[in-house]
Amino acid sequence: MSRIVRAAAIQITPVFGDDGLGTARKVCQAIRDAAEKGVKLAVFPETFVPYYPYFSFIQPAFRFGGEHLELYERAVVIPGPVTDMVAEAARDTGMVVVLGVNERDFGTLYNTQIIFDATGQILLKRRKITPTYHERMVWGQGDGSGLKVVESAVGRIGALACWEHYNPLARYALMTQHEEIHCAQFPGSLVGQVFADQMEVTIRHHALEAGCFVVNATGWLTDEQIAEIAGNPALEGPLRGGCFTAIVSPEGKLLGTPLTQGEGMVIADLDFALITKRKRMMDCVGHYARPELLSLLQDRRPAQTVHYTGEGAQDPTLADAAEVAP
């Protein structure tokens, strides 16, 4: 029997210069606005709370120490006030929410994706496995423990951030877990039109290859915000364009009109019968796979800086060791 889920890819602007909670409040209001339209799944942009570190793209590392420290002060601790706010909004509306945040774990920041179930429970907290280019000066690296698909109120959900979609083995790890909805997040307002063009190709290809829906959200900066971040008209160009908020079917078709400018939502009804229709033709982790020729080894053990031995000690990595044993 067919199952239909209404999803929203949300493109809005962050809030700068406050205590770090302003953007989270906008997220919660957007969740409630989407609920009024019957939405059951909402996806927000990459590291949207408190904001994506745009400064690191246009400034050399030795100059952005101050902005980096400010991001530390406003970053999200999990669990904490931001996750409590979003969990409450998800629970009140009965909505599954996928949110990108700058996570602070003591002395390191991470590009983190959080999946909240319709009950408000955090189903998954995963960290971008390899920050891209300028981002490596801002965030630490994630590990394989987050490359998971989770069962949610709207179906099996997987998530990747930005150029993780150019790591085919990371995408395949999620495909093997039979994701039904893939939640993609990009920063938006970056690089220019070529970034949006590449993004469209990327998410449509993943939908076709995985045989799943893709809900992709990008952020948006106003002219005033661009001027504030750049501090120099000559640096404003790299902070324009690059927005492509969209929803794609398992057949690679755009559902609705993508959003490339301004704030708003792309809303579509996801008919799960299309997943079976696509996979009947090509299931790359089933009848179209050749595991005797090609296979993937995934290490799901969380990265640890210390391993405990001795009487009364427990190594937290041992519980997952069986998952990666040859």
Question: How would you portray this structure in words?
Answer:
With 326 residues, the protein is α/β, with parallel strands linked by helices. It has a single domain (4-281), classed as Carbon-nitrogen hydrolase (Nitrilase/N-carbamoyl-D-aminoacid amidohydrolase). Helix content is 27%, strand content 21%. The strands form 2 sheets. Strands 5-4-3-2-1-11 form a 6-stranded mixed sheet. A 5-stranded mixed sheet has the order 6-7-8-9-10, with helices on one face. Helix 1 (22-35) runs parallel beside helix 4. The model is unreliable at 317-326 (pLDDT under 50).
Write the layout of secondary structure elements.
Elements: E1 4-11, H1 22-35, E2 41-43, H2 55-58, H3 65-74, H4 81-93, E3 96-105, E4 108-116, E5 122-127, E6 150-152, E7 155-161, H5 168-175, E8 181-186, H6 193-210, E9 213-218, H7 223-230, E10 246-248, E11 264-271, H8 273-281, H9 321-324
Parallel strand pairs: 1-2, 2-3, 7-8, 8-9
Antiparallel strand pairs: 1-11, 3-4, 4-5, 6-7, 9-10
Helix pairs in contact: 1-4
Strand content: 15-25%
- Number of helical regions: 9
The tally of beta strands, per DSSP, is: 11
Mean pLDDT: 94
Level-1 CATH class name: Alpha Beta
Strand arrangement, largest sheet? 5-4-3-2-1-11
How is the CATH topology named? Nitrilase/N-carbamoyl-D-aminoacid amidohydrolase
Q: Segments where pLDDT lies below 50 for 5+ residues? A: 317-326
Largest sheet: 6 strands, mixed
CATH superfamily: Carbon-nitrogen hydrolase
CATH architecture: 4-Layer Sandwich
Overall body shape: globular
Helical residue percent?
A: 25-40%
Order of helices and strands: EHEHHHEEEEEHEHEHEEHH
Structural class: alpha/beta
Radius of gyration: 19 Å
N→C terminal distance: 38 Å
When the domains are counted, the total is 1
